[in-house]
Amino acid sequence: MKKFTMTLSSQSNLTMTIKTAKEIEIMKEGGEILSAILRELIAITRPGITTLDLENRARELVVSYKVKPSFLDFDGYPAVLCTSINEEIVHGLPSERIIQEGDLVKIDMGVVHKGFHTDSAYTVLMPGGINSDLNKKLVSVTKEALKIGITKARVGSTLGDLGSAIQTFVEAQGFNVVRDLVGHGIGRELHEDPQVPNYGKPGLGPVLREGMVIAIEPMVVIGSPKIIEGEDGFAYITKDLSHSAHFEHTVAITNDGPLTITL
User: Fold this and answer.
1) Domains and CATH numbers, the chain
2) CB contact at 8 A, 120 and 246
3) Where are the alpha helices (DSSP H) in 45-126?
4) pLDDT by residue (tens digit) across 58-73?
5) CA 249, 253, 254, 256 torsion: positive or negative?
6) Half-sphere exposure of 257 (CA within 13 A, CB side)
7) Which pLDDT score is estimated for 13?
8) Quick one: angle between helices 132-151 and 159-172, nearest 10?
9) What share of the chain is helix, strand, coil (3-state, %, to 5)?
10) Residue 90 to residues 23, 113, 155, 162, 218, Cα–Cα distance (Å)
11) DSSP codes joined into one string, 187-198
């Protein structure tokens, strides 16, 4: 599996960076820019355009906002955006693929502002389609799972607390969380320790400390959580080709509670 995708591995011997208040403020500035870019991309996402159209607009926007794209050339990834559709979970490569009615379009992007990365993702459901009601529920549950995960991003909580809260909620709604792909620490590097799984057991795992910044990103599927590599060499897709949704925010751990940087 490519390094570009955060895959679950050992959580021993971690090197977790602690950000200062000034560094978190810089990341918040970057997060606001990233959020503005994503809002513009979501606004133009519609049936009939290609995911490459979204990529081209994203390239214009990073220039306009004077930030650098985090993903471009990261371990060979050749695009600014990740655009994943339906059974593609994450890291789909923009292409001439035309967005169709009923598609679940996942838009994932990171930017570098003053030396610090931020990372965020949204799932946009196109109108129509034969599975509209189920897809609507999938999107709603995944979005809510992210909110629940963020509430657990507090000083003294463990990553097991966070992952368990996400997993418990998602499974109660009849869906599954992907286990082989995870969130991550973030800062001067796009991927830092610790890894942030969307499942776990309360009280287990690394303890969250003031100044840590993590990317929380539930990846939720209708069917089996098993994954395989996609044909483009970067995407991961559901093995049973069931639909998936993905939401992500960059969150700072502070003594005043979780601070969502990418709102």
Assistant:
1) 21-260 (3.90.230.10)
2) no
3) 51-64
4) 999 999 999 999 999 9
5) positive
6) 4
7) 63
8) 160
9) 30, 25, 45
10) 28, 23, 29, 21, 11
11) SSSSSEEEEE-S
Q: Locate 40 and state its tokens.
A: 């513009």
Q: Tokens 């093995």 — which residue?
A: 239
Q: Which residues fall within 8 angstroms of residue 123, CB to CB, at 6 or more apart?
A: 104, 105, 106, 107, 139, 142, 143, 245, 246, 247
**Do 220 and 142 meet the contact criterion of CB atoms below 8 Å apart?**
yes
State how far the alpha carbon of 86 is from the alpha carbons of 44, 78, 129, 249, in Å.
Answer: 18, 21, 12, 21
Give me the residue label for tokens 């003294």: 156
Q: Cα–Cα distance between 186 and 230 in angstroms, integer? A: 25
| Spacing of C-alpha 2 from chain mean position | 16
| DSSP three-state, residue 249 | strand
Report the candidate in 46, 108, 115 with the shortest Cα–Cα distance to residue 82: 108
What is the predicted pLDDT for the residue at 131?
78
First to last CA, the chain: 30
Q: Hey, what are 99's tokens?
A: 């967005």
The residue with tokens 């939720």 is 220
Q: Hey, what are 14's tokens?
A: 């971690």
The whole-angstrom separation of Cα 239 and Cα 146 is 23
Which parts of the chain sit beneath pLDDT 70? 1-13
Q: What pLDDT does 7 receive?
A: 46
Handedness of CA 19, 23, 28, 31 (dihedral sign): negative
Phi–psi pair at 169, nearest 5 degrees: -65, -50
